[in-house]
Amino acid sequence: MAAIETTYRDALRQALIDAMTEDASIFVMGEEVGRYGGAYGVTKGLLEMFGENRVVDTPIAEAGIIGAAIGAAMTGSRPVAELMYIDFAGLTMDQVANQAAKSRYMFGGQIGVPMVLRTQGGTGRSAAAQHSQSLEAWFTLIPGLRVVMPATVNDAYHLLRMALKHPDPVIFIEHKALYVRKGELDVDNPDGAWGKSAIRREGTDVTIVTYSKMVFESLAAAEALAGHGVSAEVIDIRCLNPLDDETFITSVMKTGRAMVVTEAVMTSGFAAELSARISERCFDFLEEPVVRVTGEDIPIPVSPALERGAVPSAQLIAETGLWLVKRIAPSWAA
Amino acid sequence: MAAIETTYRDALRQALIDAMTEDASIFVMGEEVGRYGGAYGVTKGLLEMFGENRVVDTPIAEAGIIGAAIGAAMTGSRPVAELMYIDFAGLTMDQVANQAAKSRYMFGGQIGVPMVLRTQGGTGRSAAAQHSQSLEAWFTLIPGLRVVMPATVNDAYHLLRMALKHPDPVIFIEHKALYVRKGELDVDNPDGAWGKSAIRREGTDVTIVTYSKMVFESLAAAEALAGHGVSAEVIDIRCLNPLDDETFITSVMKTGRAMVVTEAVMTSGFAAELSARISERCFDFLEEPVVRVTGEDIPIPVSPALERGAVPSAQLIAETGLWLVKRIAPSWAA
Amino acid sequence: MTKGGNRLLLDLYRTMRRIRTFEERVNELFVRGQTAGSMLHMSIGEEAISGVCRAMEQSDSFTTHHRGHGIFIARGADPNRMMSEIAGKADGYCSGKGGSMHIADMGLGALGANAIVGGGIPHVVGAGLSYRNRGLKNVSVAFFGDGASQQGILYEAMNMAALWKLPVVFCCINNQYGMGTRIDRAAANTNLHERAIACGLNGVAVDGGDVEEVHEMSERVLDSARNGRPGFIAMTCYRHFGHARLDKSPYRDEAEELEGRKRDAVLNARAKLIERQTSDAASLDSMDDEVAKEMNAAVEHAIAAVPPGQDSMFRDVFAMGEPQPRPLRQHLSSILGEAR
Amino acid sequence: MTKGGNRLLLDLYRTMRRIRTFEERVNELFVRGQTAGSMLHMSIGEEAISGVCRAMEQSDSFTTHHRGHGIFIARGADPNRMMSEIAGKADGYCSGKGGSMHIADMGLGALGANAIVGGGIPHVVGAGLSYRNRGLKNVSVAFFGDGASQQGILYEAMNMAALWKLPVVFCCINNQYGMGTRIDRAAANTNLHERAIACGLNGVAVDGGDVEEVHEMSERVLDSARNGRPGFIAMTCYRHFGHARLDKSPYRDEAEELEGRKRDAVLNARAKLIERQTSDAASLDSMDDEVAKEMNAAVEHAIAAVPPGQDSMFRDVFAMGEPQPRPLRQHLSSILGEAR
Ligand SMILES: Cc1ncc(C[n+]2csc(CCOP(=O)(O)OP(=O)(O)O)c2C)c(N)n1
Ligand SMILES: Cc1ncc(C[n+]2csc(CCOP(=O)(O)OP(=O)(O)O)c2C)c(N)n1
Ligand SMILES: [Mg+2]
Ligand SMILES: [Mg+2]
User: Fold this and answer.
1) Fewest Cβ atoms nearer than 10 Å: which of B235, B262, D80, D98?
2) Among D119, D316, D331, whose Cβ lies nearest the Cβ of A105?
């Protein structure tokens, strides 16, 4: 089949439909996934297609939902549990980190928890401090979890399909501002294997390592940088666990400069891990320090202008890139 | 008063007693803090001294306990909520990260949450995967929280006293294997101000940045390194938030080499943040990449030998230091 | 008729009208493109919480949920500062940082407004402990929805309150829906107060269509709580409109909505006032007009108010005088700047 | 007498004796310095859970808590592999990774043994969903303690089970204590099954001193659950000894302990067997001896067993064939090694 243009939301929806059609053990559960069609519409129509047993509207009880998904996964089903906002993860971290993540190990390999926890995070809707966070690092800290953060329409589809064949718990983190974004979906051609990065733009002067919505801000920045004679390579890591070190390490060895761009806060965000790994492995190749361009270390404010200011923009990324590569300081650093 | 020798546990206990004697708004709550005297004995005797209103045994309901502490803090009390094991934090992260941490900001500065969450983590008791974790990075990711991890007896006392005067929520993380450790307590002389690192040993060849129990492993390693002619500087950061960058940056600028040592897993652990900051700020001074010596990226196994093998030992730190400074590879790297 | 009599009912009517009109104006603010986002949850249909608030003392405290506008109006908050907050402006209650879901006025005893369903519930337990420890005679009230009744934290909090005999009241505003889920698709036993009773609380159900009943029962429950017997009030009402501004409730049928909206404490109170000849239609109309003017002014106030400056972003993460987070640009300068 | 009759009671007696003796031997293993740690929670006093396990089908599933040894023995687990796990040895049920609190035999329907109080409770809801979706007639049973009844997750799970009419049973082993806290200092209403009833479940209380009653009631509750009416069993018993190996229970007095230990399903069953002339003291003694030999052998087995190799540490973090975590030393080599 040829590639078609669709939205991130519809690609996710299509992935669920295709997977559920193929594998009768898959079912979806969560708050408002059925009649409502999902808070962001990803599961719209699934109830009608698959019925109430496979599209389960739940009470508002996040820990219970994830706990139930774990039990279902342990008994031969493949649940997709939707956590409406990643901000609610705090209610579920025991089930995620102590139960889903550790069961295989703690019981000596006797049992697995093949579930997908779908959720979404990030800014863009003036949803304030409790509905706008980027908490992926809570999950990447925990051995036993896979963590995936698709940026593109094609990845939304394919990574979710792959996640639904995976033997271990997968935390699948969407971005609320990407749902309406359009792009190409080719159901026959994933952008790469599970756990492999995608080089979204090739370049020679600086490597930008990023994921989720910041891929697009970074690509826009790369475009702007090109106008200033700076050639940026943009790497979308797609999977935070398993993490494909080699692609970005090879790239930085080539370019000699690296920026890590994430929407999450700087302190203890996943950018720290990426930065540390690059510095460890590319030490002899780096012309300049690895620079993190991240969200501010603050809760997300509701005011639209403050919210925008709290996370990196294409402009900030480009300015930082220019500074890094050409030593041209941005106006605010004067 | 002169310094006395006592244990980490007793220093903590003394801090609670002194603070509660001084400030009637302080009360302690948590599972088994009263009649039982605390799972690790820190609150032993407090019930008799301060009565049931100020030493509150709670049901097993971690989210409720932290939530109640928040409400108490908002209404003029200063609660010390004990979370028996940091591993149970997963039950409380909503209250900690969405409530305690964000209230001041989200309400525009109208209210504060001056509470201390005392907990303990780490390995050393064959307590297995759900009772041995080092989860400090869950907290350092969240703006609005202070995070403190004392290693020494004197810090156990003084940092807890300071935390109990602090206007914002403080996550106070003890180490289960340190409770019986002895050291000097000088109630009149803290090792330094709140938020400042302590240089535990001076050196010129390599800087070891660490905290909590790994301070002692690092000091033992430094001693061993001295025997090989390597002079290591050991910095105990004590507070992860606020973080005193300047002390370790100054040190690394002097030594030109850095190791970050933590018990937590490598991926997304706080060592990543420390490593990234050192590389960012000391780029022109580093002779070698910043090296992380951390726990393995696995859940903690119960078998004593495996448990020991899952976290850094003084020997591993020393071997890595020798490799870093003298390019002498350890036997396992042959 | 409650002990306050008709005078009280008139007061409550006015409060309820102010709530309803405020919410209608929030809608207008949205239509005019002036709100910070679209996560706007109206309390139309829930105005009888005025009866609970009226039963509270000035010095009592409370926590609210994402649908808290009405409660704040009933407690006496300033509609201008509320509307400004909804618009994300600097003079809003939260300086433009919180928005609709987090409007809170600590001067009125608020301990926070939560966008985490159930998140604010346990805080009243701590407030109760505080009061007990300091010998204060206050009560702390948690307001939340029927949906929140399925969150475990409620049971942890209720058990602690009952165990320690705290001056605490749990007030469940049962508007029948949690987003698109009717309560009978969320709970096996929809008599939510029965669970509270089983946990050892003084649990009652009240009709949210009748503000006098709500007020009277609330007085009793609060009184009891003040004396060490914590309570639970399940106020049955109906969410007249969608969950949030953009929701048109396609998951429920019109017949149900028409029926549901008949439970209308505002219109019921109005009818009673006229019936009892406490007031007549004309003077109620003019009261309504006055309220409308007040709320219109709030809209204009919010639109005219200034947005917060970018610098304010870094304020109030921690207490004043304490180290605040370092802005990213400063950090970048320390790495890439000339002085490096 | 239950329908199984005296034959059944004899069987249950033997199971209960095996539990008690096993636990006594765990103690011995500890005294001999051969356990992995000291977090050893004995189920002495709780042996009547054998009656619940007996009412379960082979294909039913279950989750246990930190005090799960007895349940596993009742389900038919191998004492050798259990004891090895407690010693942290390679041939233990969890390959020496789990230890006492995590012993689980998935071949017997276990879905895990949890050291998080309440952690395993919601898993049975998911198992119930699985069974329902696939048309299976199994039941899933969550075992937990009275202390866990104060955790919110129980109420979330009970509500879902009741709402969806799942084949699920919640079995609360009320041994009166959560560590040093007696249930009346942890819950306002100590009739824990009443809370389950308020959530819409089939809630019953049974006497854990009488294994026949436990068995009979469990059959009824399980049967009901299998047919879509989830249940809750509160089994009243007494924790005969300390919370864990090192706890001497200084927080409770001897008189209470002596009284509490009278609730002893093992001795009661024995007395009944003799009274009913199903058996005599001599043959019960020889049954006990046989059990003692079996459990002595388990201790020796565990001591002789080999510890896991250091490499095994990196196995089973993820499924076989999937990328496992990279050992630290490899990572260091990639940074500091010659090939860098
Ligand atoms: C922990 C959590 N889960 C889910 C949501 C999303 N959500 C917001 S409001 C709501 C419905 C709440 O229903 P109810 O408690 O009855 O309050 P109501 O909206 O009816 O006032 C949901 C599911 C949330 N904000 N927080
Ligand atoms: C979430 C959590 N909180 C606290 C603990 C510490 N802890 C272990 S067992 C226990 C008591 C549990 O009591 P109960 O549920 O009655 O089980 P019992 O020990 O009596 O079998 C406590 C508090 C824990 N392991 N997990
Ligand atoms: Mg509702
Ligand atoms: Mg118990």
Assistant:
1) D80
2) D316
Query: How far, in Å, is the centroid of ligand 1 from the Cα of D159?
Result: 17
Which residues of chain A neighbour D157 with C-beta distances below 8 Å? 64, 67-68
What is the CATH T-level fold of the domain D5-339, as seen in this structure? Rossmann fold (3.40.50)
ipTM over 0.95: yes
Cα B41 to averaged position of ligand 2 atoms, centre (Å): 17
pLDDT, residue C181, reads 98
pLDDT digits (tens, 9 = 90+) for D227-264: 999 999 999 999 999 999 999 999 999 999 999 999 99
> Residues B184, B185, B190, B196: is their CA dihedral positive or negative?
positive
Q: Is there a contact between A273 and A305 (Cβ–Cβ < 8 Å)?
A: no
The model's confidence at residue D30, banded by pLDDT at 50, 70 and 90, is very high
Residue B30 burial (10 A CB sphere; 0-12, 13-18, 19+) = buried
The model's pLDDT over C258-304, given as tens digits with 9 standing for 90+, comes to: 999 999 999 999 999 999 999 999 999 999 999 999 999 999 999 99
Q: Does B91 touch chain A (CB under 8 A)?
A: yes
> What's the pLDDT tens digit per position in B112-139?
999 999 999 999 999 999 999 999 999 9
DSSP notation for A9-68:
HHHHHHHHHHHHHH-TTEEEEETTSSTT--TTSTTTTHHHHH-TTTEEE--S-HHHHHHH
Beta strands in chain D (DSSP E): 61-64, 110-113, 140-145, 168-174, 177-178, 181-182, 202-207, 231-236
Q: What domains can you pick out in chain A, each with its CATH number?
A: 4-185 (3.40.50.970), 198-326 (3.40.50.920)
Angle in degrees, 0-180, between the axes of helices B214-227 and B314-326, rounded to the nearest 10: 50
Strands in C167-246 per DSSP E: 168-174, 177-178, 181-182, 202-207, 231-236
Question: Hey, which residues 165-194 in chain C have their CB within 8 Å of chain A?
Answer: 178-181, 185-187
Inter-residue contact D287 to D14 (CB < 8 Å)? yes
pLDDT given at position B2:
85
> Is residue D68 lining ligand 2, measured as CB closer than 6 Å?
no
Average pLDDT over residues A89-110: 98
Q: Is the pLDDT of residue A32 over 60?
A: yes
Contact residues of ligand 1, CB 6 A cut-off: A 31, 60, 62, 84, 88, 91; C 41, 66-67, 115-117, 144-148, 175, 177-179, 239, 243
Q: Which residue has the tokens 């019960």?
A: D284
Pocket test for ligand 1, best of C44, C114, C179, C192 (most atoms within 8 A of CB): C179
Residue of D154, D156, D159 to mutate, interface with C, max C Cβ within 10 Å: D159
pLDDT of residue D253: 95
pLDDT of C133 above 60: yes
Each residue's pLDDT tens digit, C5-46: 899 999 999 999 999 999 999 999 999 999 999 999 999 999
Select from A107, D123, A94, A144 the least CA-distant residue to B87.
A94
Q: Is the pLDDT of residue A90 over 90?
A: yes
Torsions phi, psi for C301 (to 5 deg): -55, -50
Q: Which of the residues of A are catalytic?
A: 62, 131
**Residue spans of alpha helices (H) in chain C:** 5-31, 49-55, 69-75, 79-86, 123-133, 152-163, 192-198, 211-226, 254-261, 265-275, 281-304, 328-336
Q: How many Å from the N-terminal Cα to the C-terminal Cα in chain A?
A: 53
- pTM for this predicted structure: 0.98
Q: b/e per residue, A67-104, with b = 16+ CB within 10 A?
A: bbbbbbbbbebbbbbbbbbbbbbbbbbbbbbbbbbbbb
Mean pLDDT of D301-319: 98
Contacts of C64 in chain A (CB under 8 A): none
Contact A106, D99 (CB under 8 A): no
